[in-house]
Write a structure and sequence with these properties.
Structural class: mainly beta
Pfam families: FHA
Distance between the termini: 32 Å
Strand order of the largest sheet: 1-2-3-6
Organism: Streptomyces diastatochromogenes
Keywords: Phosphoprotein
InterPro entries: FHA_dom, SMAD_FHA_dom_sf
Largest sheet: 4 strands, antiparallel
Number of domains: 1
Domain FHA: 7-64
């Protein structure tokens, strides 16, 4: 996914048009489950929807609270409910801190 973009993860085809094609038959994934934002500086953030996902969202076995976000890194394992998971790949190195 290109920098500066967002993808919605869920089964609702009007809310998550890209992901719903792959998740439509996954009953443990909510219609509106989570979002991934790839910022212009190369960071990627996963956020569970504020109203919560019925079966929850985990990153590396850490449960996300509704509306909370976590920064993703290469190799992280994301779980959307108990039956759907994926490994994060292709995130660039973390941006260097600006010199004072």
């Amino acid at each position: 996914m290109p920098r500066g973009s967002e993808i919605r993860l869920g089964r609702d085809d009007s809310w998550a048009p890209e992901a719903s094609e792959f998740l439509a038959d996954e009953d443990t994934v909510s219609g509106r489950h989570a979002t991934v934002v790839h910022t212009s500086d190369g960071a990627a953030w996963l956020t569970e929807v504020p109203q919560g996902a019925t079966n929850g969202t985990r990153v590396n076995d850490r449960v996300l609270a509704p509306g909370s976000r976590v920064r993703l890194s290469n190799g992280d394992r994301v779980e959307l409910g108990p039956e759907v998971d994926f490994e994060v790949r292709g995130i660039g190195e973390e941006p260097e801190e600006a010199a004072p």
